[in-house]
UniProtKB/TrEMBL annotation, chain A:
Gene: LOC112682340
Protein's recorded name: Ribosomal RNA-processing protein 42
Superkingdom in the source lineage: Eukaryota
Organism name: Sipha flava
Keywords, in A-Z order: Cytoplasm, Exosome
Molecular function in Gene Ontology: mRNA 3'-UTR AU-rich region binding
Record localization: Cytoplasm; Nucleus, Nucleolus
Automatic annotation (TrEMBL), chain B:
Keyword hit for Transcription regulation: no
Gene Ontology MF: a single term: RNA binding
GO cellular-component term (any): nucleolus
Keywords tagged on the record: Cytoplasm, Exosome, Nucleus, RNA-binding, rRNA processing
PANTHER family: EXOSOME COMPLEX COMPONENT (PTHR11953), EXOSOME COMPLEX COMPONENT MTR3 (PTHR11953:SF2)
Protein name in the entry: Exosome complex component MTR3
Entry similarity comment: Belongs to the RNase PH family.
Gene3D superfamilies associated with the record: GHMP Kinase, N-terminal domain
The Exoribonuclease phosphorolytic domain, residue ranges: 51-177, 180-208
UniProtKB/TrEMBL annotation, chain C:
A GO-annotated cellular component: cytoplasmic exosome (RNase complex)
Family as reported in the entry's similarity comment: Belongs to the RNase PH family.
Principal location class: cytoplasm
Subunit structure: Component of the RNA exosome complex.
GO MF terms held by the record: RNA binding
Gene source species: Sipha flava (yellow sugarcane aphid)
Role according to the record: Non-catalytic component of the RNA exosome complex which has 3'->5' exoribonuclease activity and participates in a multitude of cellular RNA processing and degradation events.
Protein name: Putative exosome complex component RRP41
Domain Exoribonuclease phosphorolytic: 18-147, 152-215
Any Pfam family: RNase_PH
Database matches in CDD domains: RNase_PH_RRP41
UniProt keyword annotations, A-Z: Cytoplasm, Exosome
Automatic annotation (TrEMBL), chain E:
Single GO biological process annotation from the record: exonucleolytic trimming to generate mature 3'-end of 5.8S rRNA from tricistronic rRNA transcript (SSU-rRNA, 5.8S rRNA, LSU-rRNA)
Protein name: Exosome complex component RRP4
Pfam families xref list: ECR1_N, KH_6, S1_RRP4
Organism: Sipha flava (yellow sugarcane aphid)
Molecular function in Gene Ontology: RNA binding
Coiled-coil region(s): none
Length: 289, 280, 249, 267, 293
C-alpha cells in the first residue's frame, strides 16, 4: 500500500473537496462506495463470504472444530481470528510484509466481537468440550477501508456459518465421546446477527469522511474506527494514524460513526436475508464472474 | 508454543496452579462486583479516585531518558534512547520515526507470559506509538529514529495509560523536543458505574460478557493538556453512544489532574539536572 | 478403498483418462498487471502478476541482462478440509522454488533487463494437484499481463491405480490413497519438459505410462486454456481495436 | 568518533588509577553499595529487586505445574533466564536476545545445577506425573556493569521468597487439588558472584561499571558462598596472573559475606 | 448516507460488452504465425525452427515485412515524443527518477527542465542542491519522452510550456494500451476542464486555468479553491473514464465526450455503480460505431 503516494496538489484538492462535501469520486462525506457480497462460496468451510468494496476484495471462511474449553471459562467456546494479507493484493505484502497489518486487523476484530459474542452458545458439554470457530480472513485486493470491509465480510461469513448437530454422546468413564452427524445438511445455523461492524472515519482537514479510499487515507490526519452493533452500541474504538483530535471532534466522529454503523448493519442484514431467502437453486459464481 | 532456541525452555503444556483456585478467584470477583454495586471499591478508593502515582525519572542511567511509574500495584519502566539513523533505509523521510517496544515481563501478569511478542503486546505497542507520536516534534530529526521501550514489571490494570504517561516523562527526561507533555488515563465501566483507573480485576469484570444491555467496558484516552488535543482513544466493551461525551470529559478531567503531578515531577527532574551540572 | 471401480470409474465418477472440469477467468483484479482465476475440479487458485517493474530489493545483486522472476506460493488457511495454521510454511517455500523454476523456463527474461516480475499464487481451495493448477494459473496471469513467453507452461499430475492403470489429474483423495504420482510441467507445443517430480519411489516400468498420461493431460489442459484465452481476447479486444493503431475490421 | 571518546575516557581513568582511586571514588577493590527489595511484585510467586550502584536487576519467579522429564521423573524444573531488554542499554537492539544475555543465562544455569542451590526433588509432587516448574526470569533494568553479580543476588533472594501451596494429586482420576498451605523452598547454599575487570594488565578493578567494562581488556567472575569456591569464570580476553586470581578470590569471599548479610537483613 | 450492499448472485453478468461479429485471428504464446522466409521478426514474436511464433497473446500486425504481435495489456513501452504523466520516486545525482508504470523508472535530468532564468541559465551546484525544491518525491509531472536508453528505460524532458509540475486535480490510472495515440494529448473539454491523456496510461484531470501558466511550471499554488461546479465535472469525467476503462474501451477526446453526454442522466456518485458503468460504456460504443460508419 505504500506504493501509492500523493503530491501536495492532489492532497489540497482532496482536502478542499471534503470541505465542500464533494469527494473526488462524487460521493458526499458519509457515502459508501457500492458493496457487493456473496455468501457460501467456499465449499469445504462451515461458512464463507466474499465482499468487494470498490477494489477491496475480502474472502472470509469460518471453520469449526471441537476443542476443550479453558479451565477458567468452562461454559464458553472459543473463537480465533486470523488475517492473511495475500501478496496478490500488493507486492509489499510478500513474505512477512503484510503481517503487521494482519495482526492489527485480527486483534481489533476479536476485540470488537468479544464483548458482543456470547461464547456460551458454542458450549457442547460444560468443562469438557466446546466448538472452536476459526475465522480466517484473506485479503485479496486492497482499495482502501480494509477495516470496514473485513468486518462486514466476517459478519456475513459468521451469519452464514452453521454448526454440525451432535447426534449422540456417550460417556466412557471420565471421557465423553461426541458423535457428529454425518449428514452435511443436519446443521443448526449460528446466530451472529448481533455482531458489530466496523466504521472507519478518516479525519481530513476539519471534517471526516466515511469509507475512505487509499488516497484519502494518505491525506487524512488520522482515522477513528468504531465498532457498532445493530442496536447502536459501541463495542470498540481504535485510532489509526499519527494525528490528534479535539475532544469535540472526537465526540462528533463517534456519534456519527454509530449512526452510520447502524445503517451499515441494517444494509448487511437485508442483504443477508435476501440471500437466505433465495436459497433455492442458488448458483455460486465466486471469481468466475 | 513456539520453540525458542535462545532460551531455556521448560516442558510444554504447563498449567499455573492458580487454575485450581478458580473458585477463590471467582468469589473474589463477585465480591468486587457486589461492592461496586454499592459504589465501593475493594481497595477502599472512591470510584472516582486515582490510585497513588509514584514517579521517578532518570533511573536508567544508561539510557538518554527514562521514567519509572508506579500506580497502585502497576509498575513499569520506560526508557528513551538518542535519535539514530534508521538502518537499511534509502528513502528520504521528512519526519523522524518512533520505534517502540512494549514488553510485559514474563512474571508481570496472573498467567506467565511468553518471551516472544504476542498479539496483545503488538496491539498495545501500536496504540502506545500512536499516542506519543503526535506529541514529539518529529520534524526536528528527519531521517532519524528514536527508540522508546516499555517494560511492564507488574500489571494491575490501566497499563497502557500508565505507560503513555511514563513515556511522556521519559521523553522529557531524554530532552527530546515535544509539543506538549502527554498524559493518559483510563476508565472502567461496570453496569453503568464509572470507575476511574480500574485495577486488573476490575478490568476483567468490566470486559466479561453479560446478557444485559447496561454499559460496560474500558476506555483509555491520551491527552495533551495545554494543546487540548486527544492523541489516542481506545474503547472496548459495549456502551451506549450517548455516554461517550461524558466519558471523554471525565477522562480529560482526570488527565488534567495527572498532568499536575507529572509537571511537578518534571520540574524536580529539571532541577535535578541543573544541580548535577553545577556539582560537576 | 479402491481407486478404480470394476466399471473403470474413479471415486469422483471420472474415467481413468478423464480430466476434471476446467473453468477460468482472466483479469479478475484491477491492481495487478495480470491476474487469473483457475478452477480444476475443486482445486481453486488465484494468480497475480506484477511487473515487469523496477527491482525493489537487492538491486545490486540482480543480473544486468535479464529479468528477475520472483514467486510466492501461498495456501489459504481454510483451503483444505483440515485447517492450516499458517498460509506459508516450508512446503510452500519448496513449491515456490519449483514454481519459479518452471515459469523461468518459458518467460523470455532476456527481453526485460534490470527488471523484476512478481508471480503470486494463492490456493483458495485445495483438492489435489495444487502445484499443477498453480502453474497453469500463473501462465494465464502472465499472458494477461502481456509478458513475453516462449510458450505456455502447463502442468498436470497423474498417478497409478491398482499398480497398473494410470490416472490423470488426480484429486486429493487419490493423492493420499494412491500410489506414486508424477507431476510434470511442460511447454505443450514443443513438448519440452520444464519440471518433473515424482512423489515417492516408483518402479521404472511405471514411469513411462504415467508420464505419458500426464503429458496427454497437459496437452488437453493447454487446448482448453488456449480456447478460453482466445475467447476472452475476442470478447474484450474489439473495443480496444485489438491493441493496435491501424487495425480495421 | 567513538574511538576518540574511548581514548579520552581511558586517559581519564588511568589518571585516577595511578592514584589507586576510581572515578566514582571507590578504591580499586571496592564494591559498590547494594540495596535489595523483595516481594515487590505481587503477580509473581517470588520476586526481588537489587541495585548495585546503578546496575538494577529484577527477578520474578512464576510457579507452574507440569509433567516431568521421562529420564528424571522425580525432579522438578528450575529454569533461569536472563533478559537484557533493549531498554536497559543503548547497544542492545530489540528482538532476539543478545549474546551476552544468552551467555549469562547459560552460566547461571550451570552454576545452579553444579552447586545444587535447590534440591529439585522438593519440587516433585507425584513421580512421573506432576512436578513444579519454577521459571525464574531476571530482567536487567539498568546496565551499568557487573550484571552477573546482580543476577545472582536477585535470583537467590527471589528464590527465598517463593512460597508454594500444597498440591494433592490423585493418581486414579488425574485430579489435582490445590490446598492453600504455603511453604517456603529450602535452599542449600547461597553462591555469590563477584566480577573483576582487568585494566591494562596492571590494575584489577572489582565490580566494574559499564564505562570501565568498556575499557577493560578482560573480565572474570568468582562465584563463592564465603567458604566454598563454586566457579571461576573467565571468558577469554587477556591473560591474568595466578596471584591476581588468588587475591580476587579473597575479596570475593569477603564480598559474599556482606551480600549474605544483605539478603538476611531484608527477610 | 448512502450505503448499498448488493448480492453478487443477483448481478446480471455484464462483465464485458458484446463482442464484435467477426474477430480477427488471435495468436497465443508459442503459436506459429507464419514461416520466417521473407519476413522480419518484430515485437512479440520470435523465430524457432524456421517459423515466426508469438510470445504474447494478440493480433498479428504487418508493417511491410515486419511482423509484430502486440498484447492487449502490458506495461507502458515508451516511444520518443510520447506525452507522459509521471510521479517522482527518487532523487539521485543530477536527475530525478520518475514512475511511469513502465518496466523501468524513467529519468529526468536536471538539464532537461527549464529553470527560472530561461534557456541560457547555467546549472550550477546550487541548482543541484536545491533539486528537491523544484521537484520532490511524490510530485506529479507531465513531460515528453526525449530518448530511450539501451536498457529500455526512458529519458524525459519538460522543455516546453505545456509540460510542468501538476497542481490541483485528480490522477487516474488505466492500462496504457487504452490510450489512443493522437496528435494532441492535451484537451480542454468544453466544460472548463483540462485533461492530459498520458500515453503511459496516467490521466490527469484539472480545472482549466485562466491565467497563463508561469514560465517554469514548477511553482505550487494551493491557495485557490477549485469551485464546486468544476469539481463536479472533474469527478464526472473521472468516473466516466473509469467506466470506459473497466470495459476496455479506447480513451480519447471523442469517446470521453460521448460518454460524458451519455452520463448526463446519472448523478456523479451514481456513476460508481456497475449498472451505470455498463450503460454508459454500451451507449458510448454504439455512438462511436455509428460515427465510424
Amino acid at each position: 500500500m505504500s506504493l501509492v503516494s500523493l503530491n501536495e496538489g492532489e492532497k489540497v484538492y482532496i482536502i478542499h473537496g471534503v470541505e465542500e462535501n464533494f469527494r473526488c469520486d462524487g460521493r458526499s462525506r458519509q457515502d459508501y462506495r457500492p458493496l457487493e457480497l456473496e455468501m457460501d462460496i467456499v465449499s469445504n468451510a462451515n461458512g464463507s463470504a466474499r465482499l468487494r468494496l470498490a477494489n477491496s476484495d475480502i474472502l472470509v471462511c469460518v471453520k469449526v472444530e471441537i476443542d476443550t474449553p479453558l479451565p477458567e471459562t468452562p461454559n464458553d467456546g472459543k473463537i480465533e481470528y486470523f488475517v492473511d494479507c495475500s501478496a496478490n493484493a500488493t507486492p509489499t505484502f510478500e513474505g512477512r510484509g503484510g503481517e503487521q497489518l494482519a495482526a492489527e486487523l485480527s486483534r481489533f476484530l476479536s476485540l470488537a466481537h468479544c464483548p458482543v459474542f456470547n461464547l456460551s452458545k458454542l458450549c457442547i458439554v460444560s468443562g469438557q468440550s466446546c466448538w472452536k470457530l476459526f475465522v480466517d480472513v484473506l485479503i485479496l485486493e486492497c482499495g482502501g477501508n480494509l477495516f470496514d470491509a473485513v468486518s462486514l465480510a466476517a459478519k456475513a461469513a459468521l451469519c452464514n456459518t452453521s454448526l454440525p448437530n451432535i447426534v449422540g454422546t456417550y460417556e466412557d468413564g471420565k471421557n465423553i465421546d461426541l458423535q457428529i452427524s454425518d449428514d452435511p445438511f443436519d446443521t443448526k445455523p449460528l446466530d451472529a446477527r448481533d455482531l458489530p461492524v466496523l466504521v472507519s472515519l478518516c479525519k481530513i482537514g476539519n471534517n471526516y469522511v466515511a469509507d475512505p479510499t487509499i488516497e484519502e487515507e494518505i491525506c487524512g490526519a488520522g482515522c477513528i474506527v468504531i465498532s457498532v452493533t445493530p442496536k447502536g452500541k459501541v463495542s470498540a474504538v481504535l485510532k489509526k494514524g499519527a494525528g490528534s483530535f479535539m475532544p469535540d471532534t472526537l465526540n462528533e466522529i463517534i456519534m456519527s460513526g454509530s449512526q452510520i454503523g447502524v445503517l451499515l448493519n441494517k444494509a448487511l442484514e437485508e442483504t443477508i436475508t435476501k440471500d437466505m431467502s433465495s436459497n433455492v437453486c442458488k448458483q455460486r459464481f465466486g471469481f468466475l464472474k | 508454543m513456539p520453540t525458542n532456541l535462545y532460551r531455556f525452555q521448560g516442558p510444554e503444556g504447563t498449567i499455573p496452579y492458580q487454575h485450581y483456585l478458580i473458585d477463590k478467584n471467582n468469589t473474589k470477583l463477585t465480591k468486587i462486583a457486589t461492592a461496586l454495586m454499592k459504589n465501593e471499591r475493594c481497595d477502599g478508593r472512591d470510584i472516582s479516585a486515582h490510585r497513588n502515582l509514584c514517579i521517578k525519572t532518570g533511573i536508567v542511567t544508561q539510557a538518554k531518558g527514562s521514567a519509572y511509574v508506579e500506580k497502585g500495584h502497576t509498575k513499569l519502566l520506560c526508557s528513551v534512547f538518542d535519535p539514530k539513523e534508521v538502518p537499511n533505509k534509502v528513502e528520504y523521510a521528512k519526519t523522524g520515526e518512533l520505534q517502540c517496544e512494549f514488553k510485559f515481563a514474563t512474571f508481570s501478569c496472573r498467567q506467565r507470559r511468553n518471551y516472544t511478542r504476542d498479539s496483545e503486546e503488538r496491539q498495545l505497542c501500536n496504540e502506545f506509538r500512536r499516542a506519543i507520536e503526535p506529541a514529539v516534534c518529529r520534524g526536528e530529526f528527519a531521517n532519524f529514529e528514536i527508540q522508546v521501550n516499555v517494560l511492564v514489571l507488574e500489571n494491575d490494570g490501566s497499563v497502557l495509560s500508565t505507560a503513555i504517561t511514563a513515556a511522556g516523562l521519559a521523553l522529557m527526561d531524554g530532552c527530546i523536543p515535544m509539543y506538549d507533555m502527554i498524559v493518559a488515563s483510563s476508565l472502567g465501566i461496570f453496569k453503568n458505574t464509572i470507575l476511574v483507573d480500574p485495577t486488573y480485576d476490575e478490568e476483567t469484570l468490566c470486559l466479561s460478557w453479560t446478557e444485559d444491555e447496561e454499559n460496560r467496558g474500558t476506555v483509555m484516552l491520551a491527552y495533551m493538556v495545554s494543546l487540548e488535543q486527544i492523541t489516542e482513544f481506545s474503547q472496548n466493551g459495549s456502551m451506549d453512544i450517548n455516554m461517550f461525551p461524558e466519558y471523554v470529559q471525565l477522562l480529560i478531567d482526570q488527565n488534567c489532574k495527572i498532568n499536575k503531578l507529572v509537571q511537578s515531577a518534571a520540574i524536580t527532574d529539571v532541577i535535578g539536572h541543573f544541580e548535577s551540572q553545577t556539582t560537576d | 478403498m479402491d481407486l478404480l471401480s470394476r466399471q473403470g470409474l474413479r471415486t469422483d465418477g471420472r474415467r481413468s483418462d478423464e480430466l476434471r472440469r476446467i473453468s477460468c477467468k482472466m483479469g479478475v483484479f484491477n491492481q495487478p498487471d495480470g491476474s487469473a482465476y483457475l478452477e480444476q475440479g475443486n482445486t481453486k487458485v488465484l494468480a497475480a502478476v506484477y511487473g515487469p517493474h523496477e527491482i525493489r530489493v537487492n538491486r545490486s545483486k540482480a543480473p544486468n541482462d535479464c529479468a528477475v522472476i520472483n514467486c510466492q506460493y501461498s495456501m489459504a488457511t481454510f483451503s483444505r478440509s483440515e485447517r492450516k495454521r499458517r498460509p506459508r510454511d516450508n512446503k510452500s517455500a519448496e513449491l515456490t522454488v519449483h514454481l519459479k523454476q518452471a515459469m523461468t523456463t518459458a518467460i523470455k527474461t532476456d527481453l526485460y533487463p534490470k527488471s523484476q516480475i512478481d508471480i503470486f499464487v494463492e490456493v483458495l481451495q485445495s483438492d489435489g494437484g495444487n502445484y499443477s493448477v498453480c502453474v497453469n494459473a500463473a501462465t494465464l496471469a502472465l499472458i494477461d499481463a502481456g509478458i513475453a513467453m516462449e510458450e505456455f507452461v502447463i502442468s498436470c499430475t497423474s498417478s497409478l491405480a491398482n499398480g497398473e492403470v494410470p490416472l490423470v489429474d488426480i484429486s486429493h483423495l487419490e493423492e493420499t490413497l494412491g500410489g506414486p504420482s508424477i507431476t510434470v510441467a511442460i511447454l505443450p507445443i514443443s513438448g519440452k519438459i520444464a519440471m518433473l517430480e515424482t512423489s515417492q519411489r516408483m518402479h521404472i516400468n511405471h514411469v513411462e505410462p504415467v508420464l505419458t498420461e500426464a503429458m496427454r493431460g497437459c496437452r488437453y489442459i493447454y487446448d482448453t486454456l488456449n480456447k478460453t484465452i482466445k475467447k476472452h481476447y475476442e470478447e474484450i479486444g474489439g473495443a480496444l481495436n485489438w491493441g493496435t493503431e491501424e487495425y480495421n475490421i | 568518533m567513538n574511538s576518540i571518546k574511548l581514548n579520552i575516557q581511558e586517559t581519564y581513568i588511568k589518571e585516577y588509577l595511578a592514584l589507586q582511586k576510581r572515578s566514582d571514588g571507590r578504591g580499586l577493590t571496592g564494591f559498590r553499595d547494594a540495596s535489595l527489595n523483595i516481594n515487590s511484585i505481587h503477580t509473581a510467586d517470588g520476586s526481588s529487586v537489587i541495585k548495585i550502584g546503578n546496575t538494577a536487576v529484577v527477578c520474578g519467579i512464576k510457579a507452574e505445574l507440569g509433567i516431568p522429564k521421562a529420564e528424571s521423573p522425580d525432579v522438578g524444573y528450575l529454569l533461569v533466564n536472563v533478559e537484557l531488554p533493549s531498554l536497559c542499554y543503548k547497544k542492545i537492539r530489540p528482538g532476539i536476545p543478545c549474546d551476552e544475555a544468552m551467555e549469562t543465562t547459560s552460566f547461571l544455569n550451570e552454576v545452579c545445577n553444579n552447586c545444587k542451590i535447590l534440591d529439585l526433588q522438593q519440587l516433585c509432587i507425584c513421580v512421573d506425573k506432576l512436578v513444579w516448574i519454577l521459571s525464574c526470569d531476571i530482567y536487567c533494568l539498568n546496565y551499568d556493569g557487573s550484571v552477573l553479580d546482580a543476577c545472582f543476588v536477585a535470583l537467590l533472594s527471589a528464590l527465598q521468597t517463593v512460597k508454594l501451596p500444597e498440591v494433592k494429586y490423585d493418581k486414579e482420576t488425574d485430579e489435582i487439588n490445590v490446598i492453600e498451605d504455603y511453604k517456603f523452598l529450602k535452599l542449600n547454599c547461597l553462591p555469590v558472584a563477584s566480577t573483576f575487570g582487568v585494566f591494562n594488565d596492571k590494575y584489577i578493578l572489582a565490580d566494574p561499571t559499564e564505562e570501565e567494562e568498556q575499557l577493560c581488556i578482560s573480565k572474570f567472575s568468582v562465584v563463592t558462598d564465603g567458604n566454598l569456591l563454586f566457579s571461576l569464570h573467565k571468558p577469554g580476553g587477556n591473560y591474568i596472573k595466578d596471584n591476581q586470581i588468588q587475591n580476587c578470590v579473597k575479596y570475593a569471599k569477603i564480598r559474599a559475606k556482606t551480600v549474605h548479610e544483605l539478603i538476611k537483613s531484608v527477610q | 448516507m448512502n450505503i448499498s450492499i448488493s448480492l453478487a448472485s443477483k448481478k446480471t453478468r455484464h462483465g464485458i460488452l458484446k463482442p464484435t461479429s467477426n474477430p480477427p485471428v488471435i495468436f497465443t504464446p508459442g503459436e506459429k504465425i507464419r514461416d520466417e522466409a521473407g519476413f522480419m521478426r518484430g515485437h512479440g514474436t520470435y523465430v524457432s525452427a524456421g517459423s515466426l511464433k508469438a510470445t504474447v497473446a494478440g493480433v498479428e500486425q504487418n508493417i511491410n515485412r515486419l511482423v509484430t504481435v502486440s498484447p492487449l495489456r502490458c506495461r507502458y513501452n515508451g516511444e520518443i515524443g510520447d506525452v507522459v504523466i509521471g510521479r517522482i520516486t527518487e532523487l539521485v545525482h543530477k536527475r530525478w527518477k520518475v514512475d511511469l508504470n513502465a518496466r523501468l523508472d524513467a529519468v529526468l535530468l536536471l538539464t532537461s527542465i527549464q529553470l527560472p532564468g530561461g534557456e541560457l541559465r547555467r546549472r550550477g551546484m546550487e541548482d543541484e542542491q536545491s533539486m528537491r525544491n523544484y521537484l520532490s518525491e511524490g510530485d506529479l509531472i507531465s513531460a515528453e519522452v526525449h530518448s530511450i536508453f539501451a536498457d529500455g528505460s526512458l529519458s524525459l524532458h519538460m522543455r516546453s510550456l505545456k509540460y510542468g509540475k501538476l497542481g490541483q486535480g485528480v490522477l487516474i490510472k488505466v492500462q496504457s494500451s487504452l490510450i489512443k495515440r493522437s496528435k494532441n494529448h492535451f484537451h480542454n473539454l468544453t466544460v472548463g476542464i483540462s485533461i492530459i491523456l498520458g500515453n503511459n496510461g496516467y490521466i490527469w484531470i484539472e480545472p482549466t486555468s485562466n491565467d497563463n501558466k508561469d514560465l517554469v511550471g514548477l511553482e505550487d499554488e494551493f491557495e485557490q479553491v477549485v469551485d464546486i461546479g468544476d469539481r463536479q465535472t472533474i469527478s464526472r469525467v473521472r468516473n466516466v473514464i473509469l467506466a470506459l476503462s473497466y470495459y476496455k474501451m479506447l480513451i480519447y477526446d471523442t469517446s470521453i465526450q460521448f460518454a460524458l453526454e451519455e452520463s448526463k442522466k446519472y448523478t456523479v456518485s451514481d456513476l460508481l455503480t456497475a449498472e451505470a458503468c455498463y450503460d454508459i460504456a454500451n451507449l458510448t460504443r454504439h455512438r462511436l460505431q455509428i460515427m465510424d460508419e
